[in-house]
Fold these 4 entries.
Entry 1:
Amino acid sequence: MSDVFLEARNISKAYEGVKALRDVSMTIGRGEVHCLVGENGSGKSTLIKIIGGVVAADAGVVVIGGRAHAHLAAIDAIREGIQIIYQDLSLYPNLTVAENISFNQFVERRASFVSWRDVRSIAERALEEIGEQIPLEQIVQDLSVAKRQIVAITRSLTQNARLIIMDEPTSAITKEDVEHLFSVIARLKAKGISTLFISHKLSEVFEIAEVVTILRDGMKVGDFPASELDDAKLTYLMTGQRIQYSPYRFSGEKKAAAPLLEVRGLTRKGQFQDVSFSLWPGEILGLTGLIGSGRTELALALFGLNPPDAGQVFLNGRVVRVRSPEEALRRGIAYLPEDRLTQGLFIGQSIGDNIIITILKKLLGALGLIDPLRRRKTENSWLEELQIKAPSPKVRAWSLSGGNQQRVVLAKWLATDPKVFILDGPTIGIDIASKSNIHQIIRALAERGIAIILISDEIPEVLHNCNRLLVMREGRLVREVADATSVGEEELLTAIGGKLTNKTA
């Protein structure tokens, strides 16, 4: 094992009497790529905040380079070389790449004036250190998420980072960008810089990790060499459950009827071209492809948020034009967006408010006001049906786990009684057990006769939960798999990521 850089010893932390961490210890070696995994609520975020000095532990110490810190402050952690890159990256979107990278240097110096030559040279040296090239004058908000991550990593190097903590860094980037990020992590390792990597995507854990620390319910399950783990073992250690996957079986008898939804030649210039497919009641149709393949743009077109330039949409055999979400809902089409926090929820409002927002007219009483009895009955019925873990519908959405937040978004759209339900990345950022529960809900909806389009770039998700698959690449449907059980992960990955030719895959 490499020399030890950091030890978290016997860390405990409680919030209002609830134990977030109980006697947790972890060791990170110099230049080590270490993964921290666990379900939502397992204590991962609390542990990294304690290591970063953002939160004070109730008990235990953090030892950095042999020096123990019982009360580590954020500035002390930074001076010791610890940098945390959160999911939001904490960059200045209106500043240039060079300004973002060098900003902290000038703050530390307490400089009264800025030398623009120094701004450029600091940024150039930092980018050169990890072999990256990004235009220094480009405004950060104009960069892709992947490029912004590189800027955040580069900025950390200007403060002599020795441990970089990455919190869910791959949740919104393409597979190609993930591979590039992993190459950057490898370069950091070669320089003796450690990485603590937090992810719900087990395939990435196996690809990048040397050591894996597993938390469950605020306690450490253990530290394991990644080579000793596989998907089933890691899932069991994280959840305490053996989660079984079985393919979704669609009844062939239903397919004898006409399709519920039919799309013919749908096109929007620069986004998707000549898309055609059919969807029957009770089907779970998987739509997969890399981020940027046109899959979300297609979903938004079906929901009235991204009008196509050409093509036709049929519902129950009749041509329809869906020009707005209101019109989509009237016709029985619902859409669960990929970003639940900004697009799916009113995060500061209650669970109940979020659920009823789509059906306010249905809850009006005789005087044109919302009937409180009808409202309570609706809210409580959805809490019960989708098993949303909250003491009451009055609880704010921000306080829920990712899995429960997604159930609230599901409830909001299911309350509209949809015939076609488009689910865009329904388990992004959700832990394994919650993913399994969401998948069970989706299957139950299909069994009730709802036609479902499940959009995901996670290959196991579409293979395990869909009866039929469509692959998008560069805005076009390049392959249809009539039976999802007939194709393997490698074959599907090739179809998704291969270079598009004039010939359909």
Note: DSSP finds 17 helices and 20 strands in the chain.
Entry 2:
Amino acid sequence: MSEQLLFILRLGLLALLYLFFFRVLRAVWAEITPPKVARVAAPDPGRRVKKHKDRGPKRAELLVLDPPPERGRTYPLGEELTMGRAAGCTVTVDDTFVSQIHARVFAREGQYLVEDLGSTNGTYLNRKKVSGPMVMQRGDRLQVGNTVLELQ
């Protein structure tokens, strides 16, 4: 082989190594940085809002459907619930496909919403990828990693 060809191959290998290194750094950075929290717009001050005695959503819970060893376990929903592998999460999931802080379920204006918190593998509501806060209805299925939960 000629010297020029060897030089080009070395440059190509070096470029691939740098790309791999930066991809690993990016993945590590995504895991250690705090998640971005989406802000919900404030209601229009000119809009009239009906006042009810029951100001929050009816108490609900998440029921684990999968994996089988966790099936039947429930997590009561309050104002906010976080899911992930981190010990500080409300729902700690022992699943390698789940990020440290993966997703959150929270109450807003009488409804429950789910939001992905920048997870690596995504959060799915009824098999559709969650890209922003999405409203959850009773009976909806939420999937994080290999864990499937149903809103009761």
Note: The radius of gyration is 22 Å.
Entry 3:
Amino acid sequence: MTSTKRDTARAWQRMLSGRRLDLLDPSPLDIEIEDIAHGLARVARWNGQTKGDHAFSVAQHSLLVERFVADLRPRAARPLRLSALLHDAAEYVIGDLISPFKAAVGLDYKALENTLARAIHIRFGLPPDDEPDDVALIKRADRMSAFYEATQLAGFSVAEARKFFGAPRGVLPPRLIPMSAPEAQAAYLDRFRRLSLQSRITNEE
């Protein structure tokens, strides 16, 4: 009896929680927030080309994006803010590719990222896909975060950052200090738990 390559190739990753996540067909049941926080706190933004004693992690970036969403829409529902916090959560297993490389890789990469993102949303009680207005808001906050990261940490001039990411408006400029991986992991978990608890309270009222 013979097996196809798809049958024999390993497409899953073992997590520290003990879960085995199939990257091609991810089950929400195999997704744990502790694994996400651990992974994102150790994935560097800008391919690690940032100033400071520590890499600026995707976990810390996600915290900033969630903060900007709240600043831009002060009455944003907790599920939207949770979605903002999780907007790059798929990168805990596929890493953070810079935008030019994502474009070069093409749609297959994006399809894999989107499949993982939908499974993560379902795992934590969110709709598989955000509403278009919410997607636009999170993207705006994401670009604002990229602007400040670029100018404070990644060596971009203000003019360069404005060209690529636009000029931020409507938020107070942050002072970015990269955290250690354990610090970023703890901060991400704490914010997730606060938003999750508040979302459950709101839904029960």
Note: Residues 1-8 have pLDDT under 50 and may be disordered.
Entry 4:
Amino acid sequence: MRADWPLLVERLAKQGVKVALISNGLTWSAELTQTAKAAGIHRVAFSLDGLERTHDCVRKAESGHRKVLQAMDLCVAAAIPVVAVTHITRRSLPELESLHVLLGEHRVTTWQVQLGVPSGNLAEERAMVLGPEEIADLLPRLVSLQKTHRPPRVVAADNVGYFGDLEEDLRDSQARIKSWVGCRAGLEVMCIESNGDVKGCLSLPSGLNGRHDFVEGNLRKQRLHDIWNNPDASPTPASFASTICRDTAQDELSRPD
């Protein structure tokens, strides 16, 4: 969306920052690949929400699946590490193992799997959100894929798991604490939006959603250092997370057998 993004990447990279991009892949091209490479990009992540029919349905983009795979191949050919990000819904859950094979064929290094939550577009299609039984099915399958040690490496996102029997298996085997340690928004992660608003995580709602209670400040008015160290910043995202969990639970209670 910003024509000057290569300059931002280059400036950050020269300061030792490992810069990553996340893209839907729809307009990715050979030219963009070379631009990203020259700017010093560290890795590129592409959203892939299922096999062809599922992905194109979710993204509402004709040939979107094919374009994502082409974008991945362009980056791999340019020696740019590629990550895939997939949110799991009732559409994509049956495709889990096939997706892993497909991503391996396209030489993806890491696959981040996360639960689709009833926010954004999925709020209008809550029947696709996984229920407790389906999550119980998903977790051992993720662990099984991790233990194959075949690429791509499978990473369970923060909203997967939480202290179940498979918790230690789901987390990074090299981590000092092998369990979920809470949301890292505003602790190790922050988001700067295109209008300068700063919030703890890109997933938190803001102006686009008619919400402003998670916006900590604006770079057009304050320095980032001052925003980050403001002791009167708004509450942590826990209230939003609990709202999502409560809404999901209510969906399950109201869902017919």
Note: The CA atoms of residues 97 and 145 lie 8 Å apart.
